[in-house]
Amino acid sequence: MNLRRSLLAAPILLAAQESKFRVAVLGTEHGHVNGFLNAAKKRSDVEVVGPISFEDREKLRGEKVEAVACFSSTDRHLEVAKLCASLKLPMMMEKPLATTNADAQEMSRLSAKAGIPIFVNYETTWYKSHAELWRFFKQEKAAGRIRKMVAMDGHAGPKEIGVGPEFLSWLTDPVRNGAGALFDFGCYGANLMTWMMDNQRPLSVLASVKRNKPEIYSKVDDEATVIVDYPDAQGIIEGSWNWPFSRKDFEIYGEKAYAHAYGGNSVRRRRSGASAEEVIAPADLPTDEADSISYLKAVARGKIKPGGLSSLENNLIATEILVAARESVRSGRVVRIR
């Protein structure tokens, strides 16, 4: 059984017997659509329909597809989910799930009522380094109980790295994005910490943001720090549009060891009593879970149920954390979740 997701028993189909996986790409506002399309072009087993613009989303009704990959702005995810539910089509959306708890809960309701998978894609879900952290802490149980987690995600800023105007326009809109760096990069830490804490809702959230470049980001934060408190552990989320380089690092400290995933392919760790760190080259992920396209195909064809980092269960909690962080910034207080 995979460490991160539940598998469905399903007949094994020979590759030669499989038809092409037809997936509709709906929305182009999220810049990550380019990576998805470029990856799909390299695959002989995938046929992409679209991209279909958000304004023309009703065109989806006339297409014979197996699933939808949504790359709209975050505030429009619910509208796409309603359309997918009416068509009984599995939906994968680019991170994060929602800008509000109400939207997140309604998507969960739609998924259950329509009987369709609705789940979230993060680049970091497909990091071999994160699978190794799970194996070390959860399967091997080498580190004891988790005491602290630190997620560091960001880059120099969306304008600074040259994202397209469509992407930039909604990333810097506090309604369409939910916030600035707080939602854009804070979502990775909220997702990963919820996963490592076995979908435990935290006790409270305290957040602080900065606007270091108001001449560029006049309406949203470009720097965010979030403290997420659990009964026996603490998480620190650092989301930034100010770093001089891109990074997606995740550190976990347990009672008897720590491990640090840096990038997608490397892990450093040290056990209690060891004189030095170990550097680990993680194992490859299973084929159906190695990337977002393979995963979406496996979900649509009933081979896998969305779970772990992709699941609605996880992302409902991750949304709670982000919304609480936004409220903490507004009020200047700790926000209690439970």
CATH class descriptor name of the largest domain: Alpha Beta
Shape: globular
Order of SSEs: EHEEHEHEHEHHHEEEEEEEHHE
Largest sheet: 9 strands, mixed
Our measurement of the CA-to-CA distance between the termini, rounded to an integer number of angstroms, reads 32 Å
CATH architecture group name of the largest domain: 2-Layer Sandwich
The overall average pLDDT, rounded, is 94
Strands of the largest sheet, in order across it?
Answer: 13-12-11-10-6-9-8-7-14
Rg calc: 20 Å
Q: Which topology of the largest domain does CATH recognise?
A: Dihydrodipicolinate Reductase, domain 2
Q: Counting H and I runs of at least 4 residues, what is the number of helices?
A: 9
Sheet-strand content, in percent, reads: 15-25%
Helix content: 25-40%
Number of DSSP strand runs: 14
* Tally of separate domains: 2
Please tell me about this protein's structure.
This protein is an alpha/beta fold and 338 residues long. It has two domains: 15-123 and 288-305, Rossmann fold (3-Layer(aba) Sandwich), CATH 3.40.50; 125-286 and 317-336, Dihydrodipicolinate Reductase, domain 2 (2-Layer Sandwich), CATH 3.30.360.10. The protein has nine helices and 14 strands. The protein has helices spanning 33-41, 77-87, 101-114, 128-139, 165-171, 181-184, 186-196, 292-300, 312-331, and strands at residues 21-26, 46-52, 67-70, 91-94, 118-121, 146-154, 204-210, 223-229, 234-240, 247-254, 257-262, 266-271, 278-280, 335-336. The chain has a nine-stranded mixed β-sheet. A five-stranded parallel β-sheet has the order 2-1-3-4-5, sandwiched between helices. Strand 8 (223-229) and strand 9 (234-240) form a beta hairpin.
